[in-house]
Amino acid sequence: INSANIGNGGVMYVMGGTIRNCLFDHVYADIGGGAGIAMRMDGEGLVSNCVFRSCSATGPNVGDGGCAALYVIKGTVADCRIYGNSVRGGCAGVYMGGGTMLNSLIYDNVATNCYSQTDGGAGLRMADGTVRNCTITRNRTLYDPEGRGFSGVQMSKGTLTNCVVYGNIGGDLRKTGGKAVYCCFGQDVEGDGNLNADPRFANPAAKDFTLNATSPCVGAGGSGDDMGYQQLTEAQKTAPAIGFSADKTFACGASAEFTFTASGVNGAGTDYVWDFGDGSEAGAGVEVTHAYAP
Questions:
Q1: 92 in Cβ contact with 63 (< 8 Å)
Q2: 66, 229, 249, 259 — which has fewest CB within 10 A?
Q3: What distance lies between CA 55 and its chain's CA centroid?
Q4: What is the pTM of this model?
Q5: Where are the beta strands (DSSP E) in 38-182?
Q6: Distances in Å between the alpha carbon of 140 and those of 87, 114, 123, 264, 288?
Q7: Reported confidence tier of residue 256, pLDDT bands at 50, 70, 90
Q8: Using CA atoms, how far apart are residues 68 and 204, in angstroms rounded to an integer?
């Protein structure tokens, strides 16, 4: 998908549903910028196994808050690659104002003329949300004499966990709030399980940023998981199968009890969260039981 567009939302404005296996390539805005030139997510949707590359918001009026590739307020981004995007004064890679990003790779994005200490930069801007098992590397800022921009991650709120943030030209992390735990950086970062170490990527020259078998990040994440992005097999890319069962008959006025099950794997560090649709507390796990009141 490629297009020239001006304003918020860019090519795609997501309020729900599923977008899978898509390529957003050379999406461009020359003036006006806006939030998410390639995609903006404002609803509880899922974007899975997509690539955002060579998108740019580099016109004279883009300014703070603009984002070249992906702008997330709600929803889930999983198993995506965001690379080679560029911006003038905003965020080149991903802006997270909420939602969740899982097992994704953000690299080789470039930001120039960073006007703002909060929004201008190359890799990932976290104003809120959750980012888990992602790798952010080789992002850079240019023409930033006052040091306002960030190269790797700019974080003011939210949670960063099981991630590798390393080798960003201009710094890996600028943190004014939020929580970073069980991550690997090229600098000392306070938080449980954080490392200051070379993650030993398998073959960065060939853009393979998975972990070498000797990496200190292997098994060093929360619950003994590996840190960072993990290349999925075709079987792992398959969506989990969801089912339910219940007794066929219920006494008049009694609650109806259902058992919900999930099977299959979709990504690193998979979590299952069940919304029962009746305002009750969400369930968790591969199998849950819930009773619906009459």
A1: no
A2: 249
A3: 17
A4: 0.78
A5: 39-41, 46-48, 51-53, 56-57, 70-72, 76-78, 81-83, 86-88, 94-102, 105-107, 110-112, 124-132, 135-137, 140-142, 153-155, 159-161, 164-166, 173-175, 179-181
A6: 11, 11, 8, 38, 45
A7: confident
A8: 24
